[in-house]
Each structure stands twice: as C-alpha cells, then as structure tokens.
Amino acid sequence: MPDTAENQAKEQPRRRQARGERRIAQLLEAAASVFCTTGYTAASTNAIAREAGVSPGTLYQFFPNKEAIAIELGDRLMHQMRDAYGEALAPVDPATPLEEAVGSAVDRFIAFNCEHPVFFALMHGPDVPGRIAEEHDALHTTLLARVEALLSSLLPDTSPADLARTSRMCLGLYKAGLELTLGHEGAEREAYVQELKNVLVRYLEPLVGERPGREEASSPRTP
Amino acid sequence: MPDTAENQAKEQPRRRQARGERRIAQLLEAAASVFCTTGYTAASTNAIAREAGVSPGTLYQFFPNKEAIAIELGDRLMHQMRDAYGEALAPVDPATPLEEAVGSAVDRFIAFNCEHPVFFALMHGPDVPGRIAEEHDALHTTLLARVEALLSSLLPDTSPADLARTSRMCLGLYKAGLELTLGHEGAEREAYVQELKNVLVRYLEPLVGERPGREEASSPRTP
DNA sequence: CCAGAATGCGAGCGACCTCTCGCTTTTGTC
DNA sequence: GACAAAAGCGAGAGGTCGCTCGCATTCTGG
C-alpha cells in the first residue's frame, strides 16, 4: 500500500513543518486557557485563534473542527498523566499503611490536576459533546478499575457490589476534594488536600480495621 | 403612588388570567424537563416552547428572556425547599448524637433533590450565566452558614478558619454523594445515601470525640 | 354585548458561531 | 533561483438561537 493521498486518514494526515508543530502547540495552549475560563461549549474557535494570535483560517489548517482540538488536548493530557503517574494506583502492597497508600495516591493526582487545570475543566463540564464524553467515560472507567483493584486487595472479604460502591464513593469524594483544592491557593490549598486525605482515610479505616498488624492511630486534627 | 402602567416593574407586572398562570406552570415544567436533559445553555427557548406545546411567541408573553425562566424556576424551588426543609439544619441541640444530626439533615436534602432533579442541574452546571450564578452563590453561602453554625455548636473550641474549611468540605462531600445518589435507583440509591452518611459521620467523629457523654460506636458496615 | 385586555401564533430579524475558500506568503528541496 | 507544498489570512457562507412584531383569537368587566 503506497503512501498516497488517500492514506491521509491514518497517523500523519500530511507532512508538517516545524512551524506547523509549533503552531499546534500554541493553539492547544490557547485552547487550554480558553476552555479553563469559559468551558468547552462557550469557548469559540475565533476566541481560541485570537488567544493564539492567529486567524480563524489558520486554526482550521491544523484541526478539522472544534471538537478535534479538545480531543487532541485530552489525548496529550492523558499521555502525560500515564507517563508521570501511571503507577500511582497500581502497586498495592497489602502491608502498606492505609494513610500512606491514600496519601501518596491523592498527592500524585492532586499535583497533576494543579499543574493542568484544563484537565478538570474538560473532564468535569456536563456540556462536552460526544467524543469528549467518551474519553471522559474511558478515563473514569479506568480509574474506577484501579481503585477497585486497590481496594479489593485491602478488603479481601467484601462483596463485589459493596466494592464497586465504595470505589465510586472514593472517586466522587476525590473529585469533590479536588474541586475545593483547585479553588484555593497556597497554605489553604494544602490544608484542603490534608482534609481530603482525612476524609478518605477515615471513611476506609473502619473497613480495613480488622487487618492483622495494624495499630489504632487517631489524630483529631493535623498535628 | 397610583397603580399605573409605569408601576409594572414591581410584583405584578400585569394582570394575569387563570389561563396565563396555567401556561406559566406548564412552561416551567417543560423548562425543568429540558434543563434536566440538556443543561441550561444547551436548552433552547424554542425547545422549551415545543415541549410545552406552545409557540415561541407565547413563551415570551410570560417571560422576558431565557434567563428569567431559570430564575423563576430557581425561586420557586428555593421557596419549596424553605417551606419543606427550612429547619433541617437550624436546631442544634448539642446533646444530639452526631449520627442522628447528620442522618436527618442528609435524608431531608437528598429527598428534596430526588424529587426535584432540576435543582441539581441548575445549581451544578458551570454554564449558567450571571443571575443564576448569583442565586447559586446565595444558596451556597446560606447553606455554608448553616453548616458552620451547626458545626460550631458541635466543635466549640475550633478556630474559625478550620471551621470554615470543615464546613466547605462537608458541603462538597454532600454534593459528591448527591451526584452518586441521583445516578442510581432503588436499593442502590439507598445504599449510596448510607455511604454518604458514613463518610460524613466518620469525617466528623474524631473532631467531636472529646465531647462529654459520648461512647465510641464503630460499625464497619451498615448493620 | 362589546370594548379592551390578555393570550396565542409563527415567520423572520439580528447576532453570533463554526467552518470554507480563494488568495498571498513562507519554507524546504533540487 | 525555481517550484511545490505548507502555512497564513480574513471575509463571508451557512446555520442556530434568542427574541420581536403584527395580527388573530379568547377572555372579562361593565
């Protein structure tokens, strides 16, 4: 199969110059900024082009439509996340204290979301259409599976239904804590992160309390 | 001041016939349905009129603009909520067990939101413009103040900053639990309500543990 | 019963948004 | 330097949506 014109739907639609790659990065950055402040639907392609300092026509030189911008942005973020924190929830040494497991997982994901606030904006808005919602669902399912795996190793004797419910609950609590965390800066942000950890640990502690080799540790506030 | 034409901006803009009141209720019901399925911004006034079985012109006979529909809907819901559950968070007998206080407050608000899913759609979407966001903020502030008052009576010796943070956290957790609850039906819904109560109680328990006349009660799962 | 107000209609106006198209300018290659 | 491909432009086509306006119909008070 020769690399003719009709092969353009796969991988490399056409040859890009270095300038083009730079423009793409620039446009994605601009899109991230606009999506963050206005959300996906309210963000106009003209506004994204203006933010990037190019004409609307130039934007459509590199993206077939508005949705593709969000898709590409989401894909790149997903890759970055997998590269940086792919193992965040994977290793589940049953001997790890609950505080430590929860704390490190929360820290990793909070850090990523603080560095890339678009991620939350894209994955949280109820206004995203088709394809992006699919990405959202895929991510949610992946995360849910990870959490479920982690919890099932911590809570071996729990029914699948309870496990699924508890996992969803943990994800929901994390999302709520993330929203509060992103809404604050500096020391206050740190405090919210700590509160989120407290919530999760205290929620899960009674469920794993029967595990061998664990002592009771209850610190009412952060020491 | 006579009740002339220029007095129409207050209270009763003009005289309504019974048919008009019926149409208004009908339009609001249709709007609630459309808002629920598509969100506020994506909901078109033509779609609302179609859902109500009237022409677009008729809709604008009763509402000056799209925003006013949401405002009126929000106002009516707020009134219903105040009438039905206004006292839900108010009475704070310090002798009340934490489980009971949290449980009844959660039950009341969950019940209201289950009966009126529009409420969540209107108050949750990040796409709502100006005035509705104000209503949202007002409600949030009110609820926050109530929670803060309730917690301050349970936790007398806590700094105002910690109190505010804990209150916000509780509200955020409630919102997360509400979303999960609304996403399920029947027995599963009940289970999520119970999990939400567990989360809140376990989160707050260590903070009120020093209160006199309380015994430790830790039930790993719902009995 | 009738005058005037309230209700009801639906084509269509203006604003905005996504995306296109013909064109010029820049870049890489021989 | 010549030439093709890529990058860049911006007016505007085509479409949707909020909302209006002129006119027809139904109600209500005197």
UniProtKB/TrEMBL annotation, chains A, B:
InterPro entries on file: DNA-bd_HTH_TetR-type_CS, Homeodomain-like_sf, HTH-type_TetR-like_transc_reg, HTH_TetR, TetR_C_22
Keywords: DNA-binding
Pfam families: TetR_C_22, TetR_N
Annotation: DNA-binding region: 44-63
The keyword DNA-binding belongs to this UniProt entry's keyword annotation: yes
Positions of the HTH tetR-type domain: 21-81
GO molecular function, one term: DNA-binding transcription factor activity
Keyword Electron transport among UniProt keywords: no
PANTHER family: HTH-TYPE TRANSCRIPTIONAL REGULATOR RUTR, TRANSCRIPTIONAL REGULATORY PROTEIN
Protein name, UniProt field: TetR family transcriptional regulator
